[in-house]
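Working notes for the structural subgroup meeting. M.R. asked for a predicted model of this chain before we commit to crystallization trials. I am recording the input and output together here so anyone reviewing the notebook later can reproduce the run.

Input as submitted:
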Amino acid sequence: MRFAKMNNPIVSEHDPIQSLISFDGKLFLIPGFYQTEKADFYFERLYNTLGWQSEKLFIFGRQVLTPRLMAWYGDKQAVYRYSGVNHLPNEWTAELLQLKTDVETSCQHKFNSVLANLYRHGQDSMAYHADNEKELGENPTIASLNFGESRLIRFKHNKTADKLQLELAHGDLLIMAGSIQHHWKHEAPKTRAAKTARINLTFRQIIS
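Returned structure, recorded in token form:
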């Protein structure tokens, strides 16, 4: 397994950080973006207040049930279509708005929506994919917040042998930017390890 070199610093309210991939996009990790006490608070609130639901998506021409629970929130115009389904946004909650503000400040980028995923156990997962829907624009910046159980996320380049895997922990922030969605796919694989619930929030800017 080859791991990409680190380059391309960005500036945030934290110390400048380096991209985890050296070509075809940018990928930044801020461990402990939220410290444990605040991360615990957000996990509890999100787990108990978001409108979690199981969805049927069209994958390779057939309907399948997503192996996780999902919820879509955002501004009124932030309608998002993926896997053959239109998603109308729920109204922002107070907690999601605060998280959005914090992430926007760090990323220096505006977001108008968030996809929330609840991984209930190790068998809940996300298959390899790219966030390249036309509603996201040419080179979208996507900020991914992790609360609860740590889970593995894997990246692989579409053409080369380059791969990267990260363990996202409670309170970590991962930022995908530049042309990464054109050249890399990512997944949250199943695991046989005993895992408790994990909440992942991916903040996005939908272009109407």
